[in-house]
Write a structure and sequence with these properties.
about 450 residues, Aspartate Aminotransferase, domain 1, Aspartate Aminotransferase, domain 2, seven-stranded mixed sheet, four-stranded mixed sheet, 15 strands
C-alpha cells in the first residue's frame, strides 16, 4: 500500500531518474527467486538483487536473527569498545578464507571495503618504511565502488569523469577479447599474455613506487569479463616478484557465486587481501569486510607505539551488531544447504548449457559464464548509436525477468537457489525480447 504522494523526494542511484519516474517499476515484496511488483506481477530475479541475495529472498532465519539481535544489543560503538557477536562473526568468516587471510576489517559496503583495503595497503607500506610505495594499479572496465579510491582504481569512464583529480593510479588492460574467446565455456583459453602488461607498468613506474594492484577476479559491472586461464596466477607471481600487494575485489565473486566461497579458492590463487560485501549478509543488511593477511596486519600493529591507535580508519557502523547477526544467519544457510559449492555442480552445468543455447541467435556475438554468473553480448543494432541493453532490460522486465544491462551486454547472477525451470524461464524471456526488439 502506497504511503507517499509522489516520487520526487527520492534521488535514485545509478538510475535515469526522469525516465524511471515517468514509468516507475516498483517492487513491493520478494520471496525465493522472485520479486512481486505493486501491480502483482511476478518477476524472476535473475540478478539476485544487485548480485547479492545469494541465498534467495525472504529467508526467515535471517529476519529472525536480525529481530532478536536488535532487541538484545542494537548498537554500541566499535571504537575502543567491542561486542561478542563481532568477534564471533569474524572468527566464523575466516573459516572460509584461504590462509593466511585471517584478519577481518569491517566496513558497511563494498565501496567502503575497497577504500579500507587501499588504505591498509598504504599503511602497510608506510609501516615497513616503504614510504615511496604509494601508487595503485587497477584495470580497465573494472568497478570498485564509488568512493574516490574506488573510482580512481576503477576503469569505468562514466563513473570517473566529472569528479576532478583522483588518486595517482594506472590501469591494466581488460581481458575481454571476443575475437579470440567468443562463446567460451568457463575461463577463456587465450590472452594469458595480458597479464604481462603488469610487468610493463612496473617498468614504467618502478616497483619502488607501487603499493598494490587491485582487480576483480571476474569483472562484474564492466560486463562479466572472465580472466583467461592462468591469468590470475601470473599476476600473483609478478606481484610477489616485485614486492607489490595483490588485492582481489570479491564483492561479486564471493560467497558461492563461482562454486567456491571465493574466487581465490576456486582458482587457487591467494591474494594479500580480499574485499567482500553483498552476499556476506545475503544483501539484507549493509556490511562489508576486508580479509587481510596476517603479516600485513602484524606489520601495521608492530609499527605503532604501545597503547596507541594502530590504524586511523573505521566507520561508525563497523561490525554493526545487527549486520553481524544477519551475516551469521547467512553463513548458517550457506553451510547447511551447501550453497557455496552448488554452482560447481549440476545446476552450474545446466546454467552453462542454457545460456550457450542462445548462441544460435544471429544478434548474439558472445556468451560468457562461470558458476552461476553469466552474460550475453549483442551486436550494436544497425542504424543507431544507442546500445540495445537498456531496451532489453525493460523488455525482459515486461516479460517477467529482471536482468542487468551494460551497453550491449545483459548480465545475470541469480540466487544460488535457482532451479532448472527458472533458468529456462530466463532464456525464454531473452529469446522473446530479441524477437520483439530486432
Amino acid at each position: 500500500m502506497k504511503n507517499y504522494s509522489s516520487l520526487d523526494a527520492f534521488w535514485m542511484p545509478f538510475t535515469p531518474n526522469r525516465s524511471f519516474k515517468a514509468n516507475p517499476r516498483i517492487v513491493s515484496r520478494t520471496e525465493g527467486v522472485y520479486c512481486y511488483t505493486d501491480k502483482g506481477q511476478q518477476i524472476l530475479d535473475a540478478t539476485a538483487g544487485l548480485w547479492c541475495v545469494n541465498a534467495g529472498h525472504g529467508r526467515k532465519e535471517i529476519a529472525e536473527a536480525i529481530g532478536k539481535q536488535a532487541l538484545e544489543l542494537d548498537y554500541t560503538s566499535p571504537f575502543s569498545f567491542g561486542h561478542d557477536i563481532g568477534f564471533e562473526f569474524a572468527e566464523r568468516l575466516i573459516k572460509h578464507t584461504p590462509d593466511p587471510l585471517n584478519k577481518v576489517f569491517f566496513a558497511n559496503s563494498g565501496s567502503e571495503a575497497v577504500e579500507s583495503a587501499l588504505k591498509i595497503a598504504l599503511a602497510y607500506q608506510s609501516a615497513r618504511g616503504k614510504h615511496g610505495k604509494f601508487k595503485l594499479i587497477g584495470r580497465e572496465m573494472a568497478y570498485h565502488g564509488v568512493n574516490f579510491g574506488g573510482i580512481s582504481v576503477g576503469g569505468l569512464t562514466p563513473n570517473r569523469k566529472g569528479f576532478g583529480p583522483l588518486l595517482q593510479v594506472d590501469h591494466l588492460p581488460h581481458t575481454l577479447d571476443i575475437e579470440k574467446n567468443a562463446f567460451s565455456r568457463g575461463l577463456p583459453e587465450h590472452d594469458l599474455e595480458g597479464a604481462e602488461a603488469l610487468e610493463e607498468l612496473i617498468k614504467f613506474h618502478d616497483a619502488s613506487s607501487i603499493a598494490a594492484v587491485i582487480i576483480e577476479p571476474v569483472s562484474g559491472a564492466g560486463g562479466v569479463i572472465m580472466p583467461p586461464k592462468g591469468y590470475l596466477k601470473r599476476l600473483r607471481e609478478i606481484c610477489t616478484a616485485h614486492d607489490i600487494l595483490l588485492i582481489f575485489d570479491e564483492v561479486i565473486t564471493g560467497w558461492g557465486r563461482l562454486g567456491s566461497a571465493f574466487a581465490a579458492t576456486e582458482f587457487d590463487v591467494v591474494p594479500d587481501m580480499i574485499v567482500s560485501a553483498k552476499g556476506i549478509t545475503n544483501g539484507i543488511v549493509p556490511l562489508g569486510a576486508v580479509f587481510v593477511a596476517d603479516a600485513i596486519h602484524d606489520t601495521i600493529m608492530d609499527a605503532a607505539p604501545e597503547g596507541g591507535v594502530e590504524f586511523y580508519h573505521g566507520y561508525t557502523y563497523s561490525a554493526n551488531p545487527v549486520a553481524c547477526a544477519a551475516g551469521l544467519a547467512t553463513l548458517d544457510i550457506y553451510e547447511q544447504e551447501g550453497l557455496l559449492e552448488r554452482a560447481s555442480g549440476e545446476i552450474g552445468q545446466y546454467w552453462e548449457d542454457a545460456l550457450h543455447s542462445l548462441q544460435d541467435l544471429e544478434q548474439v556475438i558472445d556468451v560468457r559464464n562461470y558458476g552461476l554468473i553469466g552474460a550475453v553480448q549483442f551486436a550494436q543494432p544497425d542504424g543507431t548509436a544507442t546500445p540495445i541493453g537498456g531496451a532489453m532490460q525493460l523488455k525482459c522486465y515486461e516479460l517477467g525477468v529482471m536482468i542487468r544491462a551494460m551497453g550491449n551486454i545483459i548480465a545475470f547472477s541469480p540466487p544460488l537457489t535457482i532451479q532448472p525451470e527458472e533458468i529456462d524461464q530466463l532464456v525464454a524471456a531473452i529469446r522473446a525480447a530479441v524477437a520483439e526488439l530486432y
